[in-house]
Amino acid sequence: MKRFIKQFYVGLIFFFLYVPIAVLFVLSFNDSLSRVHWGGFTLKWYTELVENAPLMDALVNTLLLAVASAGIATILGLAACIGMTAMKHSSRQVLTMIAQIPMLNADVVTGIALMLLLARFMNLSFGSVLIAHITFNLPYVILNILPKLKQIGTSTYEAALDLGASPAYAFFKIVLPEIFPGVLTGFLLAFTMSLDDFSVTYFTKGPGFETLSTTIYGELRKGIKPQMYALSTLMFLVVLLILFIINRQSVKEERKIKQQKKKHSLSRTALCLMLFLLPVTLSGCGKQKENYQNEITVFNYSEYIDPEVLEIFEEETGIHVNYEEFATNEAMYAKLSSDAVSYDLLGPSDYMIEKLMKEGRLQKIDKSKIPNLKNLKKNCLESCESFDPGNEYAVPEFWGTLGLLYNTKMISETEVSSWDCLFDEKNKGNIIMSNDMRNSIGIALKKLGYSINSSNPKEIKEATDLLIRQKPLVQAYLTDETRDELVAENAAIGVIYSGEAYLAMEYNEDLAYSVPEEGSNVWFDCFVMPKDAPNKEGALKFLNFMLREDIASMNFEYVYYTTPNQAVIDSQPDDIKYDDCIFPTDEMVSRGEPFTYLGAKGEKLYSESWKRLKSR
Amino acid sequence: MRNSLFKKLLSGPYIFWIVGFTVLPLLVIAYYAFTQNGQFTLANITAITQYAHWKALAISLVLALLCTFVCLLISFPLALVLRNLSLAKGHLARGRNNMIVMLFILPMWINFLLRSYAWQMILSRNGLLNGFLSLLHLPKLHIYNTPWAILLGMIYDFLPFMILPVYNAMIKIDQDVINAAYDLGATKQTTLRKIIFPLSLPGIISGITMVFVPSISEFAIANLLGGGKILLIGNIIEQEFSEGNNWNLGSGLSLILMIFIIISMLFTAKYDKNGEGGTLL
């Protein structure tokens, strides 16, 4: 009975740890791009995996980085722990204290601080990411080895010395085997931390280097691609299989021999891991970078360019595109301000473009070199003038509206024609607001009849008070997850960008999209050129290429956000051309207002108001 | 003692490393924290007294403490049971031992975001858990988008960091010592309290540090499972570095958090001295 309780307890904990993994396992066979929509059983994500070269590259990078950073951290940490045992109590305390700093700091803080520092004396590349990873791995190694060292006594070690063993010999024969579980756990936890990290990697990496984490965060906006689930499941199963084989072997050996088996099972573990890593590593090394005469570096919103489009450009022009992605304007700004990388083109949004312009970081674009500008929609360019007067700096990539995604079974069309529905007691618990402070405060401002760009303290206070009163009605403040929550019918209304609303409606036909009558935000994501762009000619060629009808059309079909390219719009079939979610009507646009830059004071005001709301 | 200098030198590369890549970046943060537009100021440090800030800090602290406590509560008995399972006839089966360690680490090799999404699907209103409950005609659970979901997510993410060091410390305890205690008439409780607990203390302390310290600045789970309705100090720091674009304030608040390293060290030091006897190596 007692034994049963014990086993039940262990089983329960494993169940807790493995339930989410089981969910992901099931998702890897789901024939749908949305995680909340079951589209039938398929194996295609597994078969597509091998062909997905960027994902395989990311896998290789991730594993190399994790093995190298955990390995180096383990060696450094092990040596440090031994050294620390010979130190005075106080100096040991100071060292362990400093070691914990990267563990305590929020990832963003560690990432930005390391970026600012490393960018001073090295290129942001594999090396800088490796340094950063070793740094945050070290505390985990030390915290696992130190307690083991404390546990073992000195007597056996000293006895070995008395018997004539050299300190090194005694260490490897006596001490290391004793503390080995701690060393192994330290290494594995470090490996895990490196595998999982996003923020620090994002800030310390350069263009063209992706890990699995950065890939996943890049895919967030449009839903994580199921290949990722397949890859995770596969990695997981391979390691599990290796584990079972090793366990089997060592149990067998245990019966036969006693002493030698340690070496065996250890070296076998290492061997198996190597066998697992080798093919992946080789596939990475086998690939050769072609020689291009010149290159451009583009820093763009994630999921905004079909990778095939980039390949065509490279083939046609012989210019290599160093492509890097960001998830938010602010993340881009932080990276940009470290001056670590010289970009030729950036792809931020409206208000950020104005900010960069005002800070003198941008240069005017030579329009005579881009004949395809004629393809751009007229009223789209007019709207852009609100943040870029004269259309001198920005070339629109995609645009759209901010509106409401709603479930027609739960709420009527007349209700969602006004922002009032978000503040109606009747919809309590069924509302998803935007977790973006400018979106949410902007909606409140619009409802009150003010400008979405107000920086008048009185108006902002009024808007914030309104949001505070609304908070009990709100189910959650989300950004990337709103779409899935609505598809899964966990809520009735959600604030969402038009492009994502369109995706959601594909999965659940009861969903519809509305831009309330009070007016909303119209957003523009555009290409701009930094002042110090190293390859201006190449960048202009790229812009002209992106605006070409066939290319813009290809890219539109990949992204499915509103394209500003009139030539592409004209070539669409009627059901898409007149879908006001993909292509907002002129009337919707005229009601909308693009965000403009608020200035440092305005930013602070919004930030404080947002905290006031959230801390209620 | 002859080779004590040599031993100390072994720490050299590590000290070099943390000075370069931990202390220097910290100085960068400190520079931002004590300036605003190039002028010296203490405002970013004293900002912690603002309502939104100290409330966020308090909630973070409570959640971190609860998370650490629950993790310990789960891990200690678990490590005891696992110790018994992996000690085959008094000898440690190393293969099985490595296997156990790996089984706890393996779930964490799946990306954090994917795991959190899986939890969303389990906990959400029409999620798997509620589907299962309604199948059994039980009332639905509404913990999604509440602090309880954040706590659950934190425990899930940090549990292995507690289990592993506690377990590693416990398998090291000699069975003979425990048997001796029984032979001398100690009850199970006494043995647990007087023998097993003190001997696994170094592991417990490492576990507490590895769970408590990082969980103070946790923020991603609050957004993913807490519906963004609760502000943790990590959220505020993150917001100031991103949307708020006020790196100075973000840095100031980050420096405040350093206090907790000192508190955690004082706590550790109290127990560290007790165990010092046999640790000279």
Category from helices, strands and their pairing of chain A: alpha/beta
- For the record, give the distance between the C-alpha atoms at the N and C termini of chain B, rounded to a whole number: 10 Å
Percent in strands of chain B: under 5%
- SS-based structural class of chain B? mainly alpha
Number of domains of chain A: 3
How many beta-strand runs of chain B?
4
Task: Catalogue the unreliable spans of chain B.
Answer: 274-281
The CATH class assignment of the largest domain in chain A is Mainly Alpha
| Second CATH tier, the architecture of chain B | Orthogonal Bundle
Highest-level CATH class of chain B: Mainly Alpha
Beta strand count of chain A: 11
Question: Quick check: average pLDDT of chain B?
Answer: 86
Order of helices and strands of chain B: HHEEHHEEHHHHHHHHH
CATH superfamily of chain B: MetI-like
The amount of helix of chain A comes to 55-70%
Q: Counting H and I runs of at least 4 residues, what is the number of helices of chain A?
A: 27
What multimeric state do the chains show?
heterodimer
